[in-house]
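Homework help board

Subject: predicted structure for assignment chain

Our instructor gave us this sequence and asked us to write out the predicted structure in token form, then describe one feature. I got the tokens but I'm not sure how to describe them. Can anyone check?
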Amino acid sequence: MFGAHQRADKTSSFLEPHRSISSAIEMTTAASPPPRRRSVSLGVDVGTGSARAGLFDNDGRLLGSSSSPIQIWKDGDCAEQSSTDIWLAICTAVKAACSLANISGEEVTSLGFAATCSLVAVDYDGEPVTVSWSGDTRRNIILWMDHRAVNQAERINSSKSPVLEYCGGAVSPEMQPPKLLWVKENLPESWSMASRWMDLSDWLSYRATGDDTRSLCTTVCKWTYLGHAHMQQTNENDSRDMEALGWDDDFWEEIGLGDLVDGHHSKIGRSVAFPGHALGSGLTPEAAKELGLVAGTPVGTSLIDAHAGGVGVMESVPVADSESKEVDEEAISRRMVLVCGTSTCHMVISKSKLFIPGVWGPYWSAMVPQYWLTEGGQSATGALLDYIVENHVASPHLANRAASRSISIFELLNEILETVREELGSPFVAALTNDIHVLPDFHGNRSPIADPLSKGMICGLTLDTSEKQLALLYLATVQGIAYGTRHIVEHCNAQGHKIDTLLACGGLTKNSLFIQEHADITGCPIILPRENESVLLGAAILGAVASKKYSTVREAMRALNAAGQVVYPSKDIKVRRYHDAKYRVFRSLYEQQLSHRSMMKEALS
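My token output:
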């Protein structure tokens, strides 16, 4: 949605005592006062494949957005990017969004960043340091989905450090300590050159402001920082750059990264702040010029992209519910946010800390300040659907048909499924996959099993290569992803959460089949936000809080989040019984895989 949004502002005139009424009237009719400049909040999100910028008004409505692609280098388990390339893409996206919405740089009054939890390496001068076997200095980012450090993660987990209790009992190869250890062991020259190791969203705010303060979101969720070290020290309303008291020096020493403790943790963060804390003196003149904005524009401490989605959607409840104090204070802890893109993150907050094996957290103040965050996830969802569809022999012809009608290939697949249902007289679309079952762990299992070695499985393949067969395989994959979400919800509720409502945002939520299958399979209603760009809104909220437009992140969420469509699970008992049976098959697939893994290990021993 592009285009400028104009407000009609009221103006008033005042009569000075010595001036006659007639002269005052004459002056007001001769020249009207200039229109008041709009106050627009800007959010920037760097995803896996693009940098995006979105502009929002004071009601949280999107005025305009734009995106710019970013480069990815992939080689086996390695996936790398360039901070230089990403910054240029951000500048392009910001200028394009402002142009499309007819908004000047002077009207942008705040800025917030969100990004994937990728690892950035820079030297003392802020120049890129390579993290690539290739030695290419452009490639100074290890992408979030990079799995090169599986071995390092296993060794770190064998330490049984107390900090591991706060990330589900084990670090993932997608977190930063294993990646840091990999670089130290494999790229010693890069290790010695790097002056700062930063999460991507922290690097973006540093590049924009020159302030090296790290976010409690990134450090707590991806670096094993213990955010609750600050529980008694301060609160969100009087947040300052807090000295980083939450690093466990013994942990870093024990895993072989004790040199990161030097200089008061200068390479990984000497100070931290709540999300939305105002950084430095705002935009530096250099960054402002590059972005087409004004120097000094307030910039808020950043969030990981999925967590920004949580901030952008978690208070998106129907108006009647939002007016209830009980709902406002308690029901927020019964909502789980699904941020559905290349991967899916599952996030729920609570006032009390809950330790859940296989699920990341509890993380204090990592998304909504002064709440504990539990974070589940699936490492490949949108990426898996793309993989399944694009690697099928029927895909090229199907893609051409979709393009000729200006619809997505997934919309066309949904139409084919409905046609097949009618042809076969099936009682409901989901029943078409009664003999096709998918375990979606094609990039390991992040939650709740926390097994990076888990593999994807498809049961029920034939020699059929038709478009109809692809549609069925696609549906079974969507269902497998939804069963994974059900597994996460049930696991969290068994450990003390009381999740009964899902809120979903991200690219996959545009797919009606994807959302309906999730509702039917989990048994939970799914609230979709009014504004589809929830991650951009969450990022914009950070800047709005930094500019003092709102006193807290929660206050800004209440003001700017808004509900759209609500998708309810089917009331048909046959649908529920069918999914219960398929869910049992789904759970058995992993158990079979473990059995097969054990058999083969024994055979090779």
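Reply (TA_rk): Your tokens look well-formed. For the description, you could write something like this. The chain has 21 helices and 22 strands. That's the kind of observation they're looking for.
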